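Supplementary Note 3. Input sequence used for the single-chain structure prediction.
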Amino acid sequence: MIDRLLERFPVVARVEGVSYLVLVAATLLHRLGSVDLVALPGFVHGVAFLAFAGLVVALHQRHRWGVVLTVQLLAASFVPFGAFWADRRVASELAGASPVSG
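The predicted structure, written as discrete structure tokens, is reproduced below.
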């Protein structure tokens, strides 16, 4: 049975990934001389990042994930498109490709 934290992981990972890409785009537009659009995407991404990191840590504790997997998932949130990789990694682990460990 999948618990609620695991059910929320894909949504949180995708929101974090999209907010990161929007923040990068807003930053590039700002540097190109456009209006300052960074404040709102920055706030949204900050909240999404904290939710993602907190969820990864909570899942690590609840499911006894290995340190390597946990660090990989957290590090992925610092790379554009990394949260999408993290979502796929957790989904493949849950699908039975291999036990969730690190």
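Residues 4-94 form one domain. DSSP finds four helices and no strands in the chain.
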